[in-house]
């Protein structure tokens, strides 16, 4: 939870800087300038008198957390705790950084522990759902990308096929045109031959071809005898 998010938990003004807030069902005091929460006052509000802030900061868990955050988390350059000893009495005490306050709330109250567990569980579920939706979106986008690539290939192939078909059609038209032209020439030639065949037989007429020579000699011999 960021500084801006946690300050939204404040609901009642004590001073310009300090507000009452409600965190995991626990009433607390918050410094709205940094989101730090008064751990001292929170422990004093607990019905369990053994839950005092001085005892918490001496626990093994607190030492482990502070050591871990100071050595591994570089985002937090400020102190993990701030003591406030002046100003209005209600706001005095030791304020903890929000990253530590969750552990203090859980240490003080089983109710806070259950609420924190539910919140964390819900948050993890939402995060898992969000990751799943992102992965699903990426998978769908990848499938769409592949479909687009396939469609592009199909369109390119169709263009090539249409080009081949058009070329084949054009070639066939040219072939048909050539065949028709040849047929017209043949028809013209046939018509000429037909016209030549209808001329009278007197042209180029030869008696020799019409009447054999032996018949002519016989004819002349008969005439001499008579």
UniProtKB/TrEMBL annotation:
Provenance organism: viral metagenome
Coiled coil stretches, renumbered: 140-196
Protein name: KilA-N domain-containing protein
Keyword presence, Magnesium: no
Membrane-spanning ranges: none
Domain KilA-N: 17-123
InterPro entries named among the record's database cross-references: KilA/APSES_HTH, KilA_N
Pfam families reported in the protein's UniProt record: KilA-N
UniProt keyword annotations, A-Z: Coiled coil
